Amino acid sequence: MTVVQIREEQDIVRARTTAKKTAQGLGFGLVDQTRISTAVSELARNVYLYAGEGEVHIEELNNRHGIRVTFIDHGPGIEDVDLAMKDGWSSVKAMGKGLPGAKRLSDRMEIHTEPGEGTTVTIEKWLSR
Amino acid sequence: MLNTNSIPILKLKDFLIVSIQTDLHDRMAEQLQQDILDRISKTHAKGVLIDISALEMVDSFIGRALADTARMASTLDAEIVIVGMQPAVAITLVELGLSLGDVKTAINLDEGHELLQQALEEKTSEEQPSEEGLAEEADDGGSD
User: CB–CB of B17/B43 below 8 Å?
Assistant: First the structure.
């Protein structure tokens, strides 16, 4: 597992580059690599914008059949997940594409959030063999 | 003055050419937007070609920066053409739910240049319809 700390804006680039490299190593094709790095970019930016800092964990799934990326922060949490999942909704200067966009680019997405405690978002992309 | 992070903007006759050869982080995208608009207003360029063929990823932030730049440029009377988007990037942008709006795109610099040239010619002919247009109509009516 690779951990990328998110503390400054350039860390968003480090997170997506690392995820892309991992995906490439697992044998994902170029389009899927791009989907993964884009989803990671959106979610790492959410960590940076909403929580200020956090961690991105990038790992291979068992039997190397895919990739899992987990975004952990101790920020304000998401009050209304359903609302946050709506296209175009954003509470800061983002575009409101982050969560719903990342979900469409992934095969699985899970959100655990507690207002005042923080947010953990997990996405997975699976290799089709 | 020279900022190693800045992306060069070249001027060629009426147009500006920008080639993004590096992975853009957010502040760079914002800086580039500002630099392009500055150069348009200083040089009175009529069009800008932005080559993104080296960009491996366009997320919502970069996508918005590009679309905003195009909108702002048009208020300065300059047209922007995004050139060379990789197919994987185009697919991902659509799935992300992002549209670049009515920003013009082209496969490569040649075609992008062609687009700008056409747009410029259309604009010039719209701006001067004056007597030539009227004379033609009169000619049409008079021919037998």
Answer: no
- Which of A17, A37, A101 faces B60 most closely, judged by CB atoms? A101
CB atoms within 10 A of CB A4: 23
Q: Concatenated DSSP letters for A35-81?
A: HHHHHHHHHHHHIIIIIS-EEEEEEEPGGG-EEEEEEEE-SS--S-H
Determine the angle formed by the axes of helices B60-75 and B87-96, rounding to 10 degrees: 90
Q: Quick: pLDDT tens for A11-53.
A: 999 999 999 999 999 999 999 999 999 999 999 999 999 999 9
Pairing relation of β-strands A118-126 and B15-19?
Answer: unpaired
Q: Which ipTM score applies to this complex?
A: 0.88
**CB contact, 8 Å: A9 with chain B?**
yes
Biggest CA pair distance of chain A: 41
Query: A30 and B88 in contact by Cβ < 8 A?
Result: yes
Residue whose token pair is 């089709």 = A128
